[in-house]
């Protein structure tokens, strides 16, 4: 279950799941990304440009990642994504200087059917969530009555 959740998180960069699953998924996903970021520039440099020793290091990390998560994922539009290449290429470059904390968990509230606490787990630099309701900052300002300066007098 965690392997597929990790693959879906990497593929879609944001998934909705229960709070308990999200907390466990955070541990798994951060370890996978840390393995790739420890390689440094070797992770996202094209293989043809690498030295023999660096190719071996990269292959080792590819096999470690591939032993845990599946190689291919499918986006919501139906296109195939190489998950291992995305971790090594895109995510390792994106989180290169960061020492950890690659994911964020946002609590959404209880699920309708069984009242399970639902959360949204995403990478920290993912695009902001498009909400239909008022944001928290605008809800605070809307709750406070606006007093005109001349009437406060």
Observed structural traits:
single chain; 153 residues; alpha+beta; 50s Ribosomal Protein L17, Chain: A; three-stranded antiparallel β-sheet; two-stranded antiparallel sheet; 6 helices; 5 strands; 46% helix; elongated; ribonucleoprotein; 50S ribosomal protein L17; structural constituent of ribosome; Ribosomal_bL17
Largest sheet composition: 3 strands, antiparallel
Q: List the domain count as a whole number.
A: 1
- Specify the helix fraction band: 40-55%
Kindly report the CATH topology.
Answer: 50s Ribosomal Protein L17, Chain: A
Calculate the terminal CA-CA distance, rounded to whole Å: 64 Å
**Strand share of the residues?**
15-25%
Give the radius of gyration.
Answer: 21 Å
The CATH superfamily appears as Ribosomal protein L17
Structural class: alpha+beta
Question: What is the averaged pLDDT score?
Answer: 87
Kindly state the number of beta strands: 5
CATH class: Alpha Beta
Looking at the overall shape, the CATH architecture is Alpha-Beta Complex
How many individual helices? 6
**Shape type:** elongated
Spell the H/E element sequence.
Answer: HEHHEEHEEHH
Strand order of the largest sheet: 1-5-4
Which spans of ≥5 residues are poorly predicted at pLDDT below 50? 132-143
Organism: Chondromyces apiculatus DSM 436
GO cellular component, one term: large ribosomal subunit
Pfam family, one: Ribosomal_L17
GO molecular function: structural constituent of ribosome
